[in-house]
């Protein structure tokens, strides 16, 4: 008993001595010159590293003057949110950005452990105290957070080599899974140049068009789906062959044949964001490049009606007369003084496959046009626009898909008649869709809508026979003329 009492009194003495020394040290520290303090800190660290076998990495939310959050921090947050919802007892819960999902992350100073290839890792979340007033407003709430991961020093190689990569990859995948997809459009240069607005504005992307609802030749459709699947899995392949991981699609065909619907179907299939680039508001090649750099991976960059937005062939044509024997290769496109003041064909070619195009990865570039013949061959050559997809008038197979979508039927006695009429009359899928559309009817009388379609087809047929024109409605031409599209 005496021994226990002696031990207790000894430990009390030691504790109070250490406590006293700590207080004296804290008071004394204030008077030590800064350099000496630094030296003593380094010495303490060296000393403790002999007796402490654990090491610690810090993952900051923001670094230096950067305005954007660290990608590793974002991925870590997602990784831990997935992990900690199972093990942490105190969690932060917030609504995800651009999403209506709840994000769970570890609360401050809460410990979460993770096991990886035999190593144990301890995670903690902390928050820096605001440093100075001029930081206020730089980030939303000036609360810079960071994570620490602590591990035994014998696992350092494993943590640096494999574990951090594992956290990054998993975290990225979880972020993508949780995110609400976005539809971006570019702001005119004069608004974002003043640093008030970002280059791209976005809204949530919610469009129901999918490959199932898209009416086109099923074989062609399957080819596109296969191509997209290959592209999605192609990270290693692209790096092996030394090409940037991107793919160009050219969608061409008359108005109302489903080019825009195809873009949304691709975006929904791949679960990518869409950057809808309004080229007419882009003032120079430099601006185009900046916009491109600001796009993220797993996205589709779209330029619709490429033939209408810019006179891309003008410069080439005028050069042709000067350059005898022009073989159509883009090397011969003459650089003009005003090149940096306008978006030019060479600027656009650079955007697609120049040096800058390799920034970022997993991007699809899509151009649409109603007049493929107006486009410069350099713009659409293979390698730039890898796949040319013709969207054409409605054939019987396409009609069957539309009837299935709109009326929910697989077959009908009027199908045979419609099949024969579609062989004779050119009609856009948009017009067929319009005839089959029945808003607000709970019970659809399919026959009624099929008859409406037959009537439309018969009228078109008679009009063609009378006027000797092909089956395209004159109204479409009129609309195009009023929209500034030059018709041949
Ligand atoms: N192939 C199709 N499959 C399913 N729906 C279609 C198809 N083509 C057109 N539609 C219907 O017609 C509407 C217009 O089609 P869309 O905007 O995709 O045509 P577009 O080819 O992009 O026309 P434009 O050249 O005028 O931009 C769509 O909202 C869709 O309802
Ligand atoms: Mg369109």
UniProtKB/TrEMBL annotation:
Residues 317-337 are annotated as: Disordered. GO terms for molecular function: ATP binding; ATP hydrolysis activity. GO terms for biological process: response to stress. The keyword Transferase does not apply. It comes from the Eukaryota. Gene3D superfamilies: 6.10.280.40, P-loop containing nucleotide triphosphate hydrolases. Coiled coil: none annotated. Keywords: ATP-binding, Magnesium, Nucleotide-binding. Its cofactor is Mg(2+). CDD domains: RecA-like_BCS1. PROSITE patterns: AAA. Residues 245-395 form the AAA+ ATPase domain. It catalyses: ATP + H2O = ADP + phosphate + H(+). PANTHER family: BCS1 AAA-TYPE ATPASE. Belongs to the AAA ATPase family. BCS1 subfamily. This is Putative mitochondrial chaperone BCS1-B. It comes from Carex littledalei.
């Amino acid at each position: 008993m005496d021994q226990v009492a002696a031990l207790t009194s000894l430990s009390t003495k030691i504790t109070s001595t250490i406590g006293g020394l700590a207080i004296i040290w804290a008071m004394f520290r204030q008077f030590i010159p800064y350099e000496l303090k630094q030296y003593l800190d380094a010495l303490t660290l060296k000393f403790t590293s002999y007796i402490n076998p654990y090491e610690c990495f810090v993952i900051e939310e923001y670094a230096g003057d950067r305005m954007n959050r660290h990608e590793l921090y974002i991925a870590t947050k997602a990784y831990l949110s997935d992990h900690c919802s199972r093990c942490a007892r105190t969690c932060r819960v917030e609504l995800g950005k651009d999403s209506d999902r709840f994000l769970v992350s570890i609360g401050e100073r809460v410990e979460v452990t993770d096991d990886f290839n035999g190593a144990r890792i301890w995670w903690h979340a902390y928050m820096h105290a605001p440093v100075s007033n001029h930081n206020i407003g730089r980030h939303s709430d000036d609360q810079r957070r960071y994570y620490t991961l602590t591990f035994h020093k014998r696992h350092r190689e494993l943590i640096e080599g494999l574990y951090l990569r594992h956290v990054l990859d998993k975290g990225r995948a979880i972020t993508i899974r949780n995110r609400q997809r976005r539809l971006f459009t570019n702001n005119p240069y004069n608004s974002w140049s003043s640093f008030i607005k970002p280059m791209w504005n976005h809204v949530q992307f919610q469009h129901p068009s999918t490959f199932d609802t898209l009416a086109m030749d099923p074989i062609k459709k399957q080819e596109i789906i296969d191509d997209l699947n290959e592209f999605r899995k192609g990270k290693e392949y692209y790096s092996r062959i030394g090409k940037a991981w991107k793919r160009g699609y050219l969608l061409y065909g008359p108005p109302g044949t489903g080019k825009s619907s195809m873009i949304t179907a691709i975006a929904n299939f791949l679960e990518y964001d869409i950057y809808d680039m309004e080229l007419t508001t882009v003032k120079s090649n430099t601006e185009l490049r900046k916009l491109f750099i600001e796009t993220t991976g797993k996205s589709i960059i779209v330029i619709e009606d490429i033939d209408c937005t810019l006179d891309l062939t003008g410069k080439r044509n005028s050069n042709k007369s000067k350059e005898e024997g022009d073989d159509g290769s883009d090397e011969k496109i003459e650089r003009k003084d005003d090149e940096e003041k306008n978006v030019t064909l060479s600027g656009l070619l650079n955007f697609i496959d120049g040096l800058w195009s390799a920034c970022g990865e997993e991007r699809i570039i899509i151009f649409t046009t109603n007049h493929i013949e107006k486009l410069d061959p350099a713009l659409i050559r293979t390698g730039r626009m890898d796949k040319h997809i013709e969207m054409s008038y409605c054939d019987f197979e396409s009609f069957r898909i539309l009837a299935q979508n709109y009326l929910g039927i697989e077959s009908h006695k009027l199908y045979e008649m419609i099949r024969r009429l579609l062989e004779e009359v050119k009609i856009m899928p948009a017009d067929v869709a319009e005839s089959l559309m029945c808003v607000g009817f709970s019970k659809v009388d399919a026959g009624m809508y099929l008859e409406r379609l037959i009537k439309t087809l018969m009228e078109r047929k008679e009009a063609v026979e009378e006027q000797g024109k092909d089956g395209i409605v004159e109204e479409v031409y009129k609309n195009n003329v009023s929209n500034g599209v030059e018709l041949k």
